[in-house]
Design a protein that fits this description.
The chain is mainly alpha-helical and 551 residues long. The chain is built from 23 helices and five strands.
């Protein structure tokens, strides 16, 4: 058993500034590998993980055995429960594609209206959020952009709209995995239960992003055709935004992060569909009837459309039942391992405090297990209507192949974060950032945005910077839940300028090589929306502290 390790925060020449600069080297390596060398994400993450481990050992003087324990604990957390959720969420989506349900839903949305402004709300905002809630990881941009292009939108415009729309739902993407990941990382720092920490973070993010959910529908239509044309469809804009924001606020606070996007997007799509039964724009835009029209698509019988949407009703029902059983005290086999060899020191904490390395395996109540169960139930319905039984295993095998490298990347990113957290490198950076003082909540949003710009993932940004935000907040006398949540809320605004997402959007509309043009059209909007999140965080920190959970 290795000796205990007490963190030091100024190991480089006794200077916090130099130590913080040194601690940032794994992030610099990650950024350089991704942006300058254009390395594959898993290779960039591996290089950064190696850098973090070497620095923890040689500079922060962490024993090799504890470095290895921290690295493997991070990788294990990346595999379970994080990658387990992602794997089964993407499998559920792939199953809906294989069954034809996805195409039925796509056609049903396209037939609701010929007006491009309302189509943008239905496809980019509503349906894109639904795909984000289920699968995430680039799928919403690729799918909604290609759908818009198929409906006749100019390709680059379609990509821009898909990228801008893929903001408000991202923090709760892949069944809430960015928030779940953040909760697992913050709980040991705060000395709290993982479940309670995750619920508080979900509530906090849910009290920040609804403002963006209200703004983004109008933003999309203005980008498409200007303010005057947006005002012509103001009822649709308001219905899309308010229905999504209201459900997003309610579910994130009352249920948790897992179903927030799914229920909010379904509510927005349903509200728009109901509106279109009684209201239509006075003038369809654009007027050119020669453009491709969704009405020309094959019409599906109402029962087939209902069956396609019923797949997602099954998902919601199974996850809700599983969560209810878990909260009611369902007994299950649970394996937990804790290693308390690391001690955090002042000024990060008031007194020397154990910082246990903890890993817990709870197989039945894990969100990934619930999604897999929902997929199995949905598949029974699909087979009753002719889907081959072999499709279940074939689709799962294809999903495993599809995600093998993303899963490796997730595990390596979590390894970087774990080594940086337990060695004290994160705290060294936090002590330097504390110098921003009262303005730190505003800058929290931009730190999160930078993380997503670098990695293309709000989950990865929360992994890299969430603990940093929380530690800085504690040193600065701010609320760590607020700043950590702001990392996630601000991070979503970096999705539209992330090189990975730009490539996905361009590929989805057949505009490979025009990523620079797309970037120029979205970068200002990314900065403006991030600033809005930063201002909201400032207000919540100093003028509206009652909005912070637990206050």
């Amino acid at each position: 058993m290795p000796a205990s390790f007490h963190q030091a925060y100024d190991p480089v020449a006794g200077s916090i500034a130099l130590s913080a600069a040194t601690a940032s080297l794994p992030l610099v390596v990650l950024a350089a590998a991704l942006l300058a060398l254009r390395a594959a994400p898993w290779k960039a993450a591996l290089a950064a993980a190696g850098t973090a481990a070497v620095l923890a050992w040689l500079v922060w003087r962490m024993p090799v055995a504890i470095v290895a324990a921290a690295a493997t604990q991070g990788m294990a957390f990346g595999l379970w429960p994080i990658s387990w959720v992602v794997l089964n969420a993407v499998f559920f989506y792939n199953l809906s594609v294989a069954s034809g349900d996805f195409d039925v839903i796509r056609r049903s949305l396209g037939r609701l209206t010929a007006d491009r402004r309302v189509q943008a709300l239905l496809v980019a905002f509503g349906f894109g959020a639904l795909i984000e809630g289920i699968a995430g990881f680039g799928a919403p941009v690729a799918i909604s952009a290609s759908m818009l292009a198929g409906l006749g939108f100019e390709p680059v415009t379609a990509a821009v709209l898909a990228l801008v729309a893929n903001t408000a739902p991202v923090a709760f993407g892949s069944l809430g995995i960015p928030v779940v990941t953040l909760g697992g990382l913050l709980a040991p720092i705060l000395g709290r239960d993982v479940y309670a920490t995750t619920r508080d973070l979900s509530a906090m993010v849910g009290r920040q992003l609804p403002l963006a959910s209200l703004l983004v529908p109008a933003y999309l239509v203005v980008l498409l055709c200007g303010w005057r044309r947006m005002l012509e469809v103001l009822p649709a804009v308001l219905v899309a935004g308010f229905s999504f924001a209201a459900v997003q606020l309610a579910v994130s606070n009352l249920i948790g992060p897992e179903l927030t996007d799914i229920l909010a997007s379904l509510a927005s799509i349903a509200a728009l569909a109901l509106l279109l039964r009684r209201w239509r724009p006075a003038e369809t835009w654009p007027r050119d009837e020669g453009l491709a029209r969704p009405a020309a698509q094959r019409a599906d019988p109402p029962r087939r459309v209902a069956r396609a949407y019923f797949t997602y009703v099954i998902l919601v029902a199974v996850v809700l039942l599983g969560q209810a059983a878990a909260s009611a005290g369902l007994k299950e086999a649970r394996w937990e391992r804790a290693l308390s060899l690391v001690f955090r020191e002042p000024p990060v904490v008031p007194a020397s405090t154990p910082y246990p390395l903890v890993f817990r395996l709870d197989a039945l109540s894990a969100s990934g297990t619930l999604v897999l169960a929902a997929a199995a139930v949905a598949f029974l319905v699909m087979t009753a209507f002719g889907m081959p039984r072999a499709a279940f295993l074939l689709t799962y095998r294809a999903t495993l192949r599809q995600l093998r490298l993303p899963v490796l990347t997730i595990a390596l990113i979590l390894s970087i974060a774990s080594v940086m957290n337990y060695s004290g490198m994160t705290s060294s950076m936090a002590l330097a950032l504390a110098a921003t003082g009262v303005l730190f909540p505003f800058f929290s949003a931009f730190i999160g945005m930078l993380g997503v710009f670098l990695t293309g993932s709000d989950t990865s940004s929360n992994t890299l910077f969430g603990p940093l935000q929380a530690t800085t907040a504690r040193v600065s006398g701010l609320d760590p839940v607020l700043t950590a949540a702001t990392n996630s809320s601000g991070g979503v605004m970096g999705k539209m300028i992330s090189p990975q997402n730009l490539s996905v959007g361009a590929a989805g509309v057949g505009a490979v090589g025009r990523e620079g043009e797309i970037f120029r059209r979205v970068v200002v909007h990314s900065l403006l929306l991030t600033a809005v999140v930063g201002l909201v965080a400032m207000l919540q920190s100093y003028l509206l502290p009652w909005m912070i959970p637990g206050r």
